[in-house]
Amino acid sequence: MPDHKRVMGTPGTSESRERRFTEIFVECYGPVLAFARRRVDDDLAQDAVADTFMTAWRHLDELSGEPLHWLYRVANHAIANQRRGLARRQRLNDRMRLLAGHEQEPDHAEAIVETRSLTVAFTALSERDREVLRLVNWEGLDTAAAASVLGCAPSTFKVRLYRARRRLSRRLAEESGRQDPSLAQPASLGWKESLQ
Length: 196
Hints:
Layout: H1 2-9, H2 14-37, H3 42-58, H4 67-100, H5 110-124, H6 127-137, H7 143-150, H8 154-179, H9 191-194
Helix pairs in contact: 2-3, 2-4, 3-4, 4-7, 5-8, 6-8, 7-8
């Protein structure tokens, strides 16, 4: 959008700059917040979104093309900065569950078993694999857009996606084999909904 850059770069155009930012904010706030909420809890998601739009304001003159993919990338970086605290909290939660000495297992609903198997398999993946799968399955991004969010080439993203899917299938087969061998096919699961 060279026209935006030219208008915003001239003195006395703060109104034009504010209008452009407001348009981006109104159009993209919901999707960016949903993106963040699928990765961290609500408070951290709100913080990540605030950081994302602060960064967008600072770099508004550099924005061109589709802003949502750029905002996803910035939000991804903001969330990555929160990961250390989340990992610490998760380790504490895991310890507490171990101390409690039991996990409630469903005794009657096959769908719950499928969801649990998928969740365990998904959680066992590396964060890098999980993020690749989230971008495609939760955010609904195509290869080019997802690659843009991660800052890599589309061909690199395709390889990462292929490998992440293969690892998920393997993990799911292992986990499902512990439950019921008939549940080992990830394609049969509505796993976008299952993992939310």
